[in-house]
Write a structure and sequence with these properties.
The chain is an alpha+beta fold. It is built from four helices and eleven strands, in the order αααββαβββββββββ. A hairpin with a 3-residue loop joins strand 7 (about 175-180) and strand 8 (about 185-195). The protein is elongated and about 60 Å long. The chain starts with a helix and ends with a strand.
Length: about 230
């Protein structure tokens, strides 16, 4: 089952593909669905992708392809005439998808929540800005970006000013790099380790010591999925 907004979005994407051969931009989708932010569009697209209705085409801009329509996209009708009309509609959609030129854009925008060492919970930074990111750097699921501050992870190749691309989740395996909210006050990017009955957050810089906390003091808010770096 799809939500009303998911239905509305997949129909809008299909309509634009039929009209122009190019999927709509995030801004166009946000306006068409009357959403407050592009992060809402990203969540809808991720949900449709996970359920197998759409997919992102790698190395293309605005690369959304409709794989299948919801079952109720073509209204069911009684009698042969209704069945023929439904079959014609399905055939028309199939021809459009086959014959349309491939989209030429694969850049999507994800929420940019600020600097990871700013000392504020992730939720407090919702909706400030967005960051354009190549879709090939992201897998399925909801993502956000954080600007890295400091040098505590340089031995992992993460430098001050980099943008950490983070998959939103509240779980992580031992040894993964995570965004951890400590004592509900400070967000930090570190290796996560379970150390007996404690949680250890390890830096990737020999100049810094590991941080050890009680399990209830640490909340995982995401796993590192990729990095973006700007050269000036």
């Amino acid at each position: 089952m799809l939500t009303a907004k998911q239905h509305e979005l997949i129909r809008f994407i299909q309509q634009r593909l039929e009209e122009t051969g190019v999927s709509p931009s995030f801004e166009e989708m946000k306006e068409a669905l009357d959403l407050k932010s592009k992060s809402g569009v990203h969540r809808l697209i991720s949900a449709l992708e996970e359920r197998g209705f759409i997919r992102r085409l790698p190395n293309r801009a605005r690369a959304l392809e409709v794989i299948r329509q919801p079952e109720d996209a073509v209204p069911a009708s009684r009698g042969a005439a209704g069945l023929d009309a439904a079959n014609d509609a399905v055939a028309s959609v199939s021809r459009t998808l086959r014959d349309a030129p491939e989209p030429a854009n694969d850049v999507i925008e994800i929420p940019l929540h600020g600097r990871i060492a700013a000392g504020a919970p992730i939720e407090a930074l919702e909706g400030q800005n967005s960051l354009p990111v190549p879709a090939a750097l992201l897998g399925p699921g909801e993502h956000y970006a954080l600007e890295v501050s400091g040098d505590s992870m340089i031995e992992a190749g993460i430098f001050d000013g980099d943008f950490a691309l983070v998959k939103r989740t509240d779980t992580a395996r031992d040894g993964e790099i995570v965004v951890a909210l400590v004592r509900g006050e400070e967000a930090t990017l570190k290796y996560l380790h379970k150390d007996g009955g404690a949680v250890r957050l390890d830096p990737a810089n020999a100049a810094y010591a590991p941080q050890v906390y009680r399990p209830e003091e640490v909340q995982v808010q995401g796993r590192l999925a990729g990095l973006l770096r700007r050269y000036h």
